Amino acid sequence: MSHEILLTQLLYGSAGLLFFLLGVWSFISHEPLWRKLIALNIMGAGVFHVLVAVAYRGLDAPPDPVPHALVLTGIVVAVSATALALAFGRRLDREDGERTPDVHGIDDREDGTHA
Amino acid sequence: MLDPLALAVALPLLGALLVTMLPGWSRTLGMLTALATTTVALWLTVTVWGSESLHSDLGGWGVPLGIGLRADGLAAALVAMANLVALAISIHATGYFGAAESSRKFWPLWLLLWTALNGLFLAADLFNLYVMLELLGLSAAALGALTGTREAAEANLRYLLVGLLGSMTYLLGVALLYTAYGVLDLELVAEALTPGPVAWSALALMIGGLLLKSALFPLHFWLPPAHANAPAPVSAALSALVVKAAIYLVLRLWLDLFDGIATLPAAMLLGLLGAGAVLWGSWRALRAERLKLLAAYSTVAQIGYLFLFLPLLTAAPDGDTRERLLTALVLLALTHGFAKAGFFLAAGLVQKSTGHDRIRELGGAAQSLPAATFTIGLAGVALIGLPPSGTFFAKWILVGQAIALGQWWWALVAMAGTLLAAAYVFRVLARAFNREPTPKCFLTDPRTEIPALLLAALSALAVGLAAQPIAVLLGAGV
User: Fold this and answer.
1) Radius of gyration of chain B from its Cα atoms, rounded to whole angstroms
2) Does residue A21 form part of some domain?
3) Please, which pLDDT band fits residue A85 given cuts at 50, 70 and 90?
4) Residue B339 sits in which domain range?
5) Is the confidence metric ipTM above 0.95 for this complex?
6) Counting one residue from A and one from B, how many pairs have CB atoms under 8 Å apart?
7) The whole model's pTM is what?
């Protein structure tokens, strides 16, 4: 039983590390803003996975509250950062949305301004 | 109840909330907050200078659950510098923004940035440092884009994204350390840390993320556009304080946490990047077309000097040599803080009154803006490292110790950087001092010129002469 739990914890933790690496790769290799933002959020999710896996302290003991608190705070920070980056992206879009869509990435097709 | 540690973080935060609620009063409330915060910060520094390092457990929870604050000599020295510079920037901002709409946007973000700075210098645990780092990054990016131009928005979006990448990497390092040791408090982690794969990966992740934020060559690409496109008071804060905060964190981790884990080759690598920063940053500053871009590249170079100290600190035996190197490092950081803030404020005034900051067309600036030109000259003294500026003493010790410890190549880098710095400062001054009729009055805009002038004078004269008390302060806690 405890072996299975340990395996779950290990899987969860390594999945977190994998997420983080995927996020870094995607952040560096993709130009559009929204892809970079999703990549950053995936990196964050990876770190949170690791922290959640760490919180487990055995079947009988309650989980460690500190990593949980860290994840909560981390989510708040990640949401605020994403919001600010999106605000910047919208600003750039308003300035010259049609000319260079690749720099900031939001595709113009959505608002139907041009065919 | 009256705890300077808690007040230094709580006052600017309270001020930020107040100016958000009462935007009409933002200038008055902002200035009151600035004065109160600086007073508390100086009180804190004097307390640390007089006795020992300070500790405070917020809410009485204590480690390992609660959030603690602490101040040792290093933190107190940086808090004093940061708050004095921030006060000068606040005074300058009242004149720079006037009663315009952007003044209402400036104050909440600026006080939030101030909160994050003080919080970062005083935080006692790794996660609190992460939160403050993020708060600093978010408010700095928003402030940098206040001009509202396309270039500013683009540069600061890049700054924000790079900063986020850096702090996510830092956070993974924190998660690794918590996995291995189950504590977050800096002192407890330092006690528990043993050399091994976990410690090395955490070191690489955390320092790597912070290098991105502190713009060490070749990771500096985001800094010049972001700093050069911000409004003058914001440029001053970004170059003098925000970058310094990331470097402070590198030092804190390197000296407190990873002391004994960080190997000499790793330190050599950082020193090498620092050398690259000194040479490349100075060269680009020399070639810069615009005054603010010159100042931004000069920041890249000055950051490089700070990293030249790491291989020496790692190689130095404990005791006098180490203390002296650390004092020199802090002197350099403090001097650069004052000098660069003064430089940017003066550059902002030049830009405001001439309508541009192209160095080529600055002819006669010495006659039309004597105080601003004098400020740039004084800040230049500190940037080059002429005596009696703090930079002079710092470089003196750097060169001496590099030769004493058998790493003479860092001395060559420091000297080459000094020559290049002299070249780019004199290039500006040579433009400014050509013949035009002399104006009647020395000050053209006292409210913006006097804070800039005082900062530059502090950087050129006071910090160097105050080397002894600063050494005493650092001896108190480090």
Assistant:
1) 21
2) yes
3) very high
4) 265-477
5) no
6) 85
7) 0.86
